[in-house]
What we know:
Residues 1-20 form the signal peptide. The chain has helices at 9-14, 23-28, 54-62, 96-115, 118-122, 134-147; strands at residues 44-46, 65-70, 79-84, 87-88, 151-162, 166-178, 184-198, 201-214. By secondary structure, the chain is α+β, with helices and mostly antiparallel strands. The chain has one domain (6-52, 90-214): Nuclear Transport Factor 2, Chain: A, CATH 3.10.450. The protein has a 5-stranded antiparallel sheet. The longest helix is centred in the middle third of the chain and has 20 residues, at 96-115.
Amino acid sequence: MNIKKWLLVPVCALLLVACGNDDSTTKENTGSVNDGENATTSNAVDHSIKDKTEDEKNDVTKSEKSAVSEETSEDDQAIGFEMVDGKTKAATNVPAEEEKALRQAFDEYIAALNAEDIERYSKTLSKNPTGFDMEEDVEYQKLNFENFDIKHTAKDVNVVQYNEKEAQLLAQITVEVELDNGEPFKQAARTNTVFVKEDGKWLVTRVAAIGEKME
């Protein structure tokens, strides 16, 4: 199942990736969100990131201590986090005030999605994002808000990388949405949200999701 296709808006919303949906894909896929809901899902998705191969995913699962990163363009920085014995390793160099600010920024990002408030949501995004197109992202979320009642829930939130200009938060995100046939659709993904500091505020510049679980 290709989440970039229009018929899978709820899945895209789950991964917090509203971008990466080109116009041709949107026009070609106008069916119900129920179409293909049981097809094969992609293993790793973000606004513009490449899918991971099955071998790469297995390497991450089996490694007791591994660094997981996604290749980006020369202008973009890599997204990654470190795991030890299957558990996420939190960054140890984060000042208390900055960690509080980052968590508040992340909470506001999720709250804006749940409130389906496009203006509020827009304010959580970087003015110069590296992982998505700002205008396309906002327009895509408008369609999500107009067509679906989607609830996002985050848990196990940790700051996994930090410097004064950029930080990464890893969280388990679950999305719930009711399909056209009235059936509930739930999906969870480990999501890496990258923030940059602009004018003293932490704003979202890139989002990557690794692994999906449908219920």
